Amino acid sequence: MNNKFTVLVIEDEQHISDFMYSTLTSHDYRVLQAFSGKEGLSLINSQCPDIILLDLGLPDIDGHSIIKSVREWSSSPIIVVSARTNEREKVTALDMGADDYITKPFGTGELLARIRTSLRHSNRLNNDSPLFSRPYSAGGLKIDFSRRMVTVDGNSIHLTPIEYKIVAYLAQNSGKVVTHTTLMTQVWGPYAASDTNKILRVNMANIRRKIETNPADPKYIFTEVGVGYRLKEDEQG
Ligand code: CA
Question: How many Å lie between the centroid of ligand 1 and the Cα of residue 35?
């Protein structure tokens, strides 16, 4: 196995770092461990990892500063690993360029799923398959981007242009959390009005009414409280 993906774990708590190390090595990843921000930045420089798992609470450098400095020269996906339940921390990390987050304590399955999704999005897995041109498909939900067609269990769904933009953007980032700010900027542009947040919620409620069997117990669009939305991952990934 020469083509292992390299995962850099930047985490100062030994037992969490070791848990990630053993989980990932047993799933065929090559794992590098850094126990401080400084060590992490140096390994990013020298080893160019395919993906970075970053604890926000490090002893030397603030996690947000690490994201900021990495994003100046690297597009390697960063998954924030945080014990903090403070949504603002996660939102800031995502808006600064982190790809996703995972909250401690987390299980093996969740860790592996987040990594797979981020790697897929980083285009390193299949550089030649344009992610956005082929249709999205998960469960009964299908989106044909070239025809702007959304179907659920074979039934065509009528969405307004704004609703379609929201769903299409979530689909292009399926499996990943998309923050409210990112979604609003993507759909309404950088000068979105201040009440856009409310408009986004109204649109989301309408979309769910159209595509979910039970909007209160969604199968496709999940709410990440205080952070944003996550669309069920594309099954053809
Ligand atoms: Ca820590």
Answer: 9
